[in-house]
Structure formats: C-alpha cells, structure tokens
Design brief:
229 residues; Phosphatidylinositol Transfer Protein Sec14p; 14% strand; SEC14/CRAL-TRIO_domain; CRAL-TRIO_dom; CRAL-TRIO domain-containing protein
Amino acid sequence: MDLKRFLDILVLAVLSFESISASLILFDSNWKDISANSTDSIENLKDFRYYVSGFDYDNRPVVIMDWGKWNIEWLIKQPDLKNLLKKNYENYINELASGDFTQKMSKYLSSGQNSSDEVVIIKNYDAFDIRHVYTSESFKLCMDLLKQMQKCFHKIEYGMVVNANAFTYQLLDMGKPLIGNILSKFDVYGTNPEKWIPRLSRKIPLDQLPHSLGGREDFQPLLEQSFLK
C-alpha cells in the first residue's frame, strides 16, 4: 500500500471514528503553530528522548519512550533537528541490534546478577492525537522510526504500548502493512492504568518503573538520553 493511499484511508477512518470526536478535529480553532512559542519549543526538545527505568525480573533493561509527547509536526519544521533525531535514533537502534546497549547497561546490575542480551521497550502514547501526524511528511517520519526497529527485532524480548487511545489503536492497526512485523513483539494497552499496571507488574517490578506507570514517586531513571543533542 503506498503512502498516499494509506493516508486517504486513514483520513476516512478518523472521520468515521466517533470516539475520537472533537479533540482530534484537524482544523481545531485552538490549533497553533507551536514553533512560534519558545517555551513550548524548549519542552518539545526535552520530550524527544529515551530513558532506562530499570530492569525486569530477568534483568532485561527497560527502555521507555514517551511517544505521545513527541510532537513530530513541530520537528518537521526544524530540519536540522529532524536530521539530528534521525541520526541519533539510528545510532540507538544500531546499539540495540549489536548488543552494545545491553552490555553498557550491565554495569547497573548488582554483583552476581547475570545480564541479558535482550531489552524490554515501553512506548507511552499518553497525550497522542492526530496533530502529531498532521501531514504526510510527519506521518512518514513516524512510520520510518517504527520501521527501523526491525533491525533490532531479535534483541527485543517483549514490548508494551500503554495509554493507547482510539486514534493510536487505529494508527497502529493501519500502519501494519508499512512497518512489518515489529508490532508482533508488543502488547497494546488502553488508557486505563488500573487494567495494565497489574500486567506490567507481572513482568517488571514496580520499583523499576516511573510513577506515571505505577512506580515510585521518587523514581529516577538509570540512564536518560536525548535524541536532539
């Protein structure tokens, strides 16, 4: 399926998806060009990152990205930053694929604990809406980032998508022809943490997760890395 055809179908699906309703209307009168606001730009810079929250029960590093906060549409308007993201994201994927990433994280394990060659990935889609893929260019970049994960498919033991709203479900489902089988590694959960936090806790100790995912209020990541630095 080519990108233009996919986007045509996506628009029709969004228009017919009643649960998305007014908060996802493309021409919302409250929509502003946030690139003009320096405060928002600083916040956007901070959001493009990953962090390692800790380890699961089998000593696999837990890598978290708050994709719901990634304003891809804003990034598209900053060509230098967009290219920097693509470069740093590719380096991150190559680290995962080569095993260098898990080797780097092994130093955070206690003495006597065996390290793992695989990782756990959590993608938090809280606050995600249609404005994040407002144009075909921003949508293509989003899909390209997901497709790159194919390179490290063998290093992902399992993954989780949390806080998936109606649009997130629709986007992931319709994106399957473009991004291959990487989604087979992920369980997708909705916006009710009372349902998915217990499932997270069966695989990952809650003290290894941020408070937003059921962990401690005084949580501090083991490692944090920006894609825009």
